[in-house]
């Protein structure tokens, strides 16, 4: 039988954080944060904004679910070798101080909705991407946009068609990178004032990051004349899911020239039509994919009175150069960008918003988006050196593979030394 002994030595299980704290400084993101947000407090003892973001990041890197989990790290790491880990109260106070007032917009029906754009935080989001080299002037990027409903029983949360109280932020992404977040009431229609949000997103990317948006993709929540006109003015090609093809169904049914192609392992018919009822000056192409009802819904009867019945899906685009199959495949790749929401919800705290008000939670949404972007930068720096990590590794695997390593501070030869109980030399290379 094994004998169990208790040791009083102070050993921390998250020794990999030391290398990450160092990378947070070397990457330039700390300097970008402090330069953009300015100094906190009147004395040198005050925690900087860079300390705030690093401490919040560390909380999630140790598997924490909320800001308060940082308190498990503070006793071991704070004020060691220049590392400063602040308390959860300090983090929350600092983030609250970055909030800005909401803007109210009234719809045609007389309903007022609260929006929060927070230009300061969104500008910081892009500056941090520039600091880490993830977004550089002259880059050609593909931009995705979507709204993410976040259930939240907060004081000013509104009841949504999702059958819960919460917020409905609009989020712009470039691949796995989040490049814009604007929050709104949970009961606001996704099309309401979306053109204004997109105009701000494009303007920031063009002026602050100086990148070129090549293509834009969005779901049917962006299919309106005002939104399409705004998007077309800022990108080469757009691909937007048409919200309804019911009015053109007769035309689709009468059309005889359907090309059979394989998309996602399934055979379907594709064809193109000119969308002449919407913004004719843009020469919009309607790419249509039809699939037998029996394949979409096996329990339903596939044969109708007039033969096979089909489900029609449409994509509105100004791209007349690529084939229908290529356009559909390209549009379907936006599903990868939607996984950003899963990552933010489960890894970086969006599922547990800390504040009671929309404008304060907007700061938290953008701050954790900055941390998620930096996490992807870490994967490029560390992933190639650690077996089992790659650019797509989720946070749980990163913690298990790299962060979790026993650590102990000792005093040797008048020096403070961090002992890491591991055979991996990567920790020395990154220290």
Outline of the structure:
With 431 residues, the protein is α+β, with helices and mostly antiparallel strands. It is 36% helix and 22% strand. It is built from 15 helices and 18 strands.
Q: Can you tell me about this structure?
A:
By secondary structure, the protein is α+β, with helices and mostly antiparallel strands. The protein is 36% helix and 22% strand. It is built from 15 helices and 18 strands. The protein has helices at residues 17-26, 29-37, 49-61, 74-77, 88-96, 119-131, 194-209, 225-232, 249-254, 293-296, 324-332, 334-347, 358-382, 395-403, 426-430; strands at 103-106, 112-116, 140-147, 150-151, 158-159, 165-167, 170-174, 177-184, 212-218, 237-241, 259-263, 266-274, 285-292, 303-304, 307-308, 310-317, 407-412, 415-420. The strands form 4 sheets. Strands 1-2-8-7-3-9-10-16-13-12-11 form an 11-stranded mixed beta sheet, sandwiched between helices. Strand 17 and strand 18 form a beta hairpin. Helix 2 (29-37) packs across helix 3 (49-61), helix 2 runs antiparallel to helix 6 and helix 3 (49-61) packs across helix 5. The longest helix has 25 residues, at 358-382. It is globular, with a radius of gyration of 25 Å.
Number of domains: 2
- End-to-end span in angstroms? 40 Å
Total number of helices? 15
Low-confidence stretches: 300-306
CATH class bucket of the largest domain:
Alpha Beta
Number of strands: 18
**Quick one: overall form?**
globular
Q: Any idea of the CATH topology of the largest domain?
A: Transposase Inhibitor Protein From Tn5, Chain A, domain 1
Strand content: 15-25%
- Largest sheet report: 11 strands, mixed
Amount of helix: 25-40%
Known CATH architecture of the largest domain: Alpha-Beta Complex
Across the major sheet, the strand order is: 1-2-8-7-3-9-10-16-13-12-11
Radius of gyration: 25 Å
SS-based class: alpha+beta
- On the 0 to 100 scale, the average pLDDT is 92
